[in-house]
Amino acid sequence: MQNCEPTLRERRRERTWKAIHEAAVALVKKNGLKQTTTDEIAERAGISSRTFFNYFATKEDAVLGLREPQITPAMIQADQARQQSYVFDRVVHLLLGVVVESIPATEHRRYRELGKKYPEFRTRFKVYLLKCERVVEDFLRTIDWQDFAANNRRGPFRFLEEGAEVNQEYWGKARASVTIASAILRYMDFSQGLPEGEARDQVVRESVDLFRDLLRED
């Protein structure tokens, strides 16, 4: 059985991440955003300024506690249960999974409060959402879309062989898929919070179906 316990290195990295995040939040609450520097955050967290940038790109990211977006094995496993679903249903779930994993839903209220007080946070949040989109787009670019289409766009995602030439049409499909998925998420207004489990699946299905109907209209 595979050991899923975090390694010592992973635990240390998580502790450092948390120390930086908590230091950034405390200093901004005390001194304000403009008066807080990354050097001060690093000093309070007990790390070097150089180490700070191994975890966060900006002090705004440190305050927000944004994690590097990624598609996790758990997301791939969850997609396996949707292999007979409409492709955009699957892409929306992948994008939503990346966003929720990177930006915990429990923090959305605080993000909105910070965004009202500091416009810089709204900018960083939008930039981060674009990073989430790029992660999913890069993932979709590895899929053999010709094989997927031959299977009526159902079943498992089969990936291009290493070194295979990527058809520009496939790149376009990947980008278009993520663009549509992002629009669906904005329509769902996920920043206000979403239900869990089957209730969330139902919200996604209804939203995807609405967009499908709109695209069919003349």
Automatic annotation (TrEMBL):
InterPro entries per the UniProt record, alphabetical: DNA-bd_HTH_TetR-type_CS (IPR023772), Homeodomain-like_sf (IPR009057), HTH-type_TetR-like_transc_reg (IPR050109), HTH_TetR (IPR001647)
Record-level Gene Ontology MF annotations: DNA-binding transcription factor activity; transcription cis-regulatory region binding
Protein biosynthesis as UniProt keyword: no
DNA-binding region: 37-56
A Pfam family hit: TetR_N
Ranges where the HTH tetR-type domain occurs: 14-74
Record keywords, A-Z: DNA-binding, Transcription, Transcription regulation
Coiled-coil region: none
Record protein name field: Helix-turn-helix transcriptional regulator
Superkingdom, taxonomy of origin: Bacteria
PANTHER family with a match to the protein in the record: HTH-TYPE TRANSCRIPTIONAL REGULATOR RUTR (PTHR30055), MYCOFACTOCIN BIOSYNTHESIS TRANSCRIPTIONAL REGULATOR MFTR-RELATED (PTHR30055:SF238)
